[in-house]
User: Fold these one by one.
Assistant:
Number 1:
Amino acid sequence: MTAYSVLDLCPILRGGDPTQSFRHSLDLARHAEQWGYTRYWVAEHHNMPGVASSATAVVIAHIAAGTQRIRVGSGGIMLPNHAPLVVAEQFGTLASLHPGRIDLGLGRAPGTDMETARALRRDLQSSAMEFPQDVQELMAYLDDPDPEQRVKAIPGVGTKVPVWLLGSSLFSAQLAARLGLPFAFASHFAPEALHDALAIYRDRFEPSRYLDKPYAAAGIGVYGADDNREAQRLFTSVQQQFTNLRRGRPGPLPPPLENMDEFWSPLERAGVEQALRCSMVGDKTTVTEGLREFLDKTQVDEVIITSGIFDHDARLRSYKMASEILSELA
């Protein structure tokens, strides 16, 4: 059975604010728990007017406290922005507050532009180069302490929070395979290397005390509605947002448009459609066909669903549809 999870960027809506975003995220998490979702992932981004989840560990605490069973994790924490000890303390605290429900997904991108990355006060070049060492240092802080260990994460030590590696290229696939960790690919916005990354991860996987066999996940977009035309209309919100990002003008998630051709150029359209090609947009029949094809081609153990729909109730209906389809496909 393929597990299915939520990826939430806590979207800030045009005309809305972060307070509304967090209220919507908690409501979605509570519904996702009822609908059989395995995990609720929250992503770290900075200086993004449309994303409210920059203080990712704080948002995870909010979601975990407002739910009962669903696992809650980072999809992901951008490790070059942080000292490994600080992340270990944050997630050790979360694991102590919510035992058995916290996951720690790690990425090596800054999750922002270079100027903002510098404002996060980490050396950009060395941080990216040191990612493999930082991952292992962080995992050591969460493990049982070594008798000679002088620096400990408190809370954190001994919590053994499950660590995932996330990526949109081949680098993290190779590292996850070498360390024997679960791996998630960001195909919901960068699908080009999806199949190569999965193949490398599976072929090179080395069993570890964390996993005895590969466990792969992949991100997709799902934009479901009662009919194909309405689903395509809902999808225009994220299409606009991606176009604005490529124009260098990131902003809140806008309401849908009736005609995207009046908004973007043919070149912009080609680029955005390429980035979002792992999106299932349509009625239940259309989304079912798309999900079945994606699962058949990737054979992933878990599918991670994002849905940048402006209207909260429509977003809930889309996630509910996805859960119904995936439970039927199982």
Note: The chain has a mean pLDDT of 95.
Number 2:
Amino acid sequence: MTDALTDLLKTRDWLLTDGATGTTLFNMGLESGDSPEFWNDTRVDDIRALYRGPVEAGSDLFLTNTFGGNAARLKLHGAQARARELSRKGAEIGREVADAAGRPVIVAGSMGPTGEIMAPMGPLTHDLAVEIFHEQAEGLKEGGADVLWVETISAPEELRAAGEAARLAGMPWCVTMSFDTAGRTMMGTTSAEMTRIVGKLAHKPVAYGANCGVGASDLIRTVLGFGETDRPLIAKGNAGIPKFHDGHIHYNGTPELMAEYAVMARNAGATIIGGCCGTTPDHLRKMRAALDETPKGPAPTLDHVAERLGGFSSGSDGTDGNAPTRDRTGSRRRARG
């Protein structure tokens, strides 16, 4: 089965993805606690602008405004019955923007976690998780998404359920986990373990990797930790480290820092490179220029990563067999945007 993302990857050594969704929408007036997915219906022009930002900055792929568009998350807003509809509308707007770009641009249907704990530790069974993800996947497919983009996942069980949903929908998919807890996901998965999990899936993703987490340096270390793989790797790191200031979260990563991160991510082995929380079109423009203008080099050492992008949030990411320890630069968080 061929798909638009695989076809584009055959023609390019690397692709640039988009940046933050939440950061942009909050700047447009989204209130904390509101569902961004409602804007796919009520503020269509703003969602068009959200998508056009990365496209005009040079991104080859952007994610739809559907991160929290599954029934489990929308239930918090009394809108669980609208999961398929709001995902379809988010993808339809994306399809319109991509088709008007004048060059190949991939519409990636964002699918975030359910927010529930998977069995046996929690109440969410595999079958129910598959059903929740499948409903959203069908909406994204109907709206014209080229690929499903499962992101910010912590539990291997949820990753497997999303992959099964993608198979049922007959859709190619990508998946990223968030390694935000001393180099591991919140549920304890390391990057090396993710590679093993992906290798055993019946319906394998087109690409996999990491998003969000703590900062750019940790993201590069995670990419290096994936090890040998036959899949393209994804790197979607935050724009620096989040700091709480004047009642808001701010990211200290400049466009120049993110440009250096992008080149370093490619050298570390990533093929699909972008930003997550705090990453604006200004960051993306610098990242695109750096990737265009800088020849690929050798994989960076951890010392070089720390020197150029800042220190790591823990002494180990777990891939060396050691239990991770945290240092004073770390912060525990899990979010998107």
Note: The radius of gyration is 18 Å.
Number 3:
Amino acid sequence: MNRLLIIVAGLLAFVLFNAFYTVGEAQQVILTQFGKPVGEPVTDAGLKMKVPFIQDINRIDKRILEWDGSPSDMPTKDKLYISVDLFARWRIVDPLAYFLRLRDERSALSRLDDILGSETRNAVAKHELIEIVRTTKGRVPLKDVVLTESDVANTNPSVGASIGELVPISKGRIVVEQEIFKAAAEKVKVFGVELLDIRFKRINYNASVEPKIYERMISERRQIAERFRSEGNGEAARIRGNMTRDLDRIQSEAYRKVEEIRGEGDAKAAEIYANAYNQNPAATKFYAFTRTLDAYKSIMTPDTSLILSTDSDVFKLLKDMGSMPNAVQNAAPPPSAFPQ
């Protein structure tokens, strides 16, 4: 009799154990009977009861879940292939529809891969790369002092207008994300899923085009460097030309000044000589005589051969060499002829 009571008590405990179940704060439960849902979803936490051995418990998470897609390559509107890495946050708001259509979280993530991947491709294909990368329209870039318009546009206006300026955008990355979110949220509603948010995690160039992009960027930087270098060489040539011109002008002015001073000195010396030798006829004759001697000294050397006529002054002078002191004495003016 005691054994029978023990067996009945054990069976009763086993039945009661299978009849009760608990629902956590982060869970919601769908009861299925022979694989089909029965009743309303259980969303309140606590101790619950079911038909033992016939009904099964299917627990569904009601917390905010994450979806982290794998990077995928896709083209932009301006024909640039980029690798886009997206992530999203979602939760189950209709557990019955979720259970009927998806059953588990793995199926939900697979369906999100398809929907979000498709909508991302559509959005990226409709926008240029700059629209996907940039966020704000009116952002003012930081400019290098070397690239400011005051330093560059003075010599080449087109350079100052292109260097250090951001390409204008019409939408920006946030608007593109909102477009993807709006299109994908409508499609996931039928699965009992609410899409909460999506964001671009990373946007990179495709591995096959990265070298070409970098080469183009390097080429553009080199062109800018060459342009600055040519402008610098032109400015240096202009400065050297101005320096040469100023130097020639200074030298010409200095030469003119020197000649003016030399001319003034010669005129002053001539004036002094004239004043000294034009006081009387004797002084004039003496001056003519001394100048003639200086001329003879400069034109006659020991190797000089002269052919003179008998009536020339030089012949007479050479003929009278013996009496030269008397001639000099006669030609010299008296002491009273010179100023004291």
Note: Residues 210-277 form the longest helix (68 residues).
